[in-house]
């Protein structure tokens, strides 16, 4: 009974899920995934890379963001995903990248 809300039909505009993680592996095609906003370099919001070509900035080299994003989309099939890459290849994040990620998500 606690989980009855989960089975309820969803109506209205699609939800936008802003995922602050390691990006999205764009070789995994999904029309509900927007271009990755890459702020892992920490150069400021005005220098955000929006990429979806494989092997470029924003590509998820860790796999974590892609898996978490796929799970979120499976749980909310009408949603649209905005991957925001705040972690680089070393799995370390910077505080300024996190702040920039939130700024993009809240726009």
Write a brief caption for the model.
The protein has 107 residues and is α/β, with parallel strands linked by helices. It is 25% helix and 17% strand.
Low-confidence stretches: none
Q: Structural class given helices, strands, pairing?
A: alpha/beta
User: What gross morphology would you assign?
Assistant: globular
- Number of helices, where a helix is a run of at least 4 consecutive DSSP H or I residues: 3
The proportion of residues forming helix, as a percent range, comes to 25-40%
> Cα distance, first to last residue?
36 Å
Strand order of the largest sheet: 1-4-2-3
Topology:
Blueprint: H1 4-7, E1 16-21, E2 36-38, E3 49-51, H2 64-75, E4 80-85, H3 95-105
Parallel strand pairs: 1-4, 2-4
Antiparallel strand pairs: 2-3
Describe the protein in words.
The protein is an alpha/beta fold and 107 residues long. It is 25% helix and 17% strand. The protein is globular.
Brief descriptors of the model:
alpha/beta, 107 residues, 4-stranded mixed beta sheet, 4 strands, 17% strand
